[in-house]
Amino acid sequence: MALLIGFNRQRHGRSTATPRRRPTRVAVVAAVVLSLVSCTRLGGGDSKTIDVLIGLNATYLQKQQQYFSTISKEFQQQTGYRVTFRTFTSSSDEQQQLQSAVISGSGPDVFALGTTFIPTAYATGAFHVLSDAEWKELGGRSQFVKQQLAMSGPSQDKQIGVPYATQPFVMAYNTEMFRKAGISGPPQTWTEFIDDAKRLSGNGVYGVSTDPSDGFDPWKYIWMFTLQSGGQLISADHTKALLGSKQVVDAASFWFDWFTKYKIVDPKAVSWQGPSSLSAFAAGKSAMQLMVSAATIPTLDSSAIKGKYAYAPMPTIPYGRTSLPPGGKAAGTIVSGQDYAIAEYSKKKDAALQLIKFLTRPKQQLLATKTFGDIPGNADAASQAIEANPRLKAFMAAEPKAVPTTFTGAWGTLQIALGTAVSQTLPSLTHGSYSRSTLASRLSQISTQVQSALDEQRKAEKAAH
């Protein structure tokens, strides 16, 4: 299961879909294992219970448990099926539970997966491909936020993920600080961003807070800056890793320069993860924070800056430019969200499909929004949520600029490799500097790792044919 190891954050109905080809070595192994376990009828469990694996929400632990209880009670009243939720606490925990389920053919009936996890999950061959009839049972694809469907599968006829949360990333900014500094609004280009952040830095306050030690965010910055400059992390035909290219080196360098060249970030932020970065912004210690989702609203509304902050799409014009360069993409955010997927080994696919239908209806979607702050994956529910909370408009304004990440099972290797390259640079940043040549060397090295993953995937695809 090498392809699954190290992946980050991120079904129902009868198995009527045409079996898909297993695109990776992982999938070939999984296919053999699943065929064996199906003969021994593993994974049955309680015939009136649907098991769901979902990420633990450390910010809203008590609320999440109450949400689980409410969902299970209401679904049981409607269908007779009880719902049990098991949680994972980290990406490695998620991987371990997924791998265990794939190998044994026994485990959760439904998995909650982040959009960037879908390609790796699909590559295992262990998830049910939804038929057109099953999508119709769910209310049709048009029921869901359009951009989110771009990461449900490699093509419309090979979709495994049903969107239940839309999580585009935007920037948050302190409106009071902007007003006092004479800045009329959020930056539209990265040049404006740097200029504004410099003006906003001083007296123990910094222009922006960021989280280079986070387990999920670092690769997103490098991806965003690379695409906006006209580069790619993986070639369009999914055959070549490009992490050693000048555009990628420039992208990583621009982010690190916030610490060393522009000095717009608290030096202590080198060790920060997402919660620490958010805490600094919420305490008024920074004027901007990037890569935030709507789930930050409850935290900020109970903080010292309540009523003094707003959201806006992140800039899409590279530093030093006034427009996108040739080949550049206005990539303001990845297509980010959460999907439900049905395990292929589940013998309760019909009931699992009904659960996903239940969970993606407006009533339950709005309950999840009220509980956790995320925007619904159901388009009608998303509209209702925005009407009830105008702050969400900034997130949905960013959604049309959401760009799908490359749909390849090697994406997990890429994310972890980029995270490693960033972490190796952090000790230098702690001392206020870094070596661009060393960074370029590291990126070339990890590009070789990603290339190996891509090559292995192509070999497996040929074998599957």
General description of the model:
With 465 residues, the protein is an alpha/beta fold. The protein has helices at residues 25-40, 61-79, 91-104, 118-123, 132-137, 175-180, 190-200, 218-228, 246-260, 274-282, 297-301, 349-359, 362-372, 379-388, 393-398, 411-430, 436-464, and strands spanning 49-55, 82-88, 110-114, 162-166, 170-174, 288-292, 309-312, 333-334, 337-342, 375-376, 402-403. The two termini are 20 Å apart. The chain has a 6-stranded mixed beta sheet with strand order 2-1-3-9-4-10.
What would a concise description of this structure say?
By secondary structure, this protein is of the alpha/beta class.
Global mean pLDDT: 88
Helical amount: 40-55%
- Number of separate strands: 11
Pattern of helices and strands: HEHEHEHHEEHHHHHEHEEEHHEHHEHH
Q: Could you tell me how far the N terminus lies from the C terminus, measured between alpha carbons in angstroms?
A: 20 Å
Strand content: 5-15%
- What strand line-up does the widest sheet have? 2-1-3-9-4-10
Shape annotation: globular
Count of helix runs: 17
Largest sheet: 6 strands, mixed
Q: Structural class of the helices, strands and pairings? A: alpha/beta
Low-confidence stretches: 1-44
What is the radius of gyration? 22 Å
Task: Note the main attributes of this structure.
single chain; 465 residues; alpha/beta; 6-stranded mixed β-sheet; 17 helices; 11 strands; 11% strand; globular; disordered N terminus
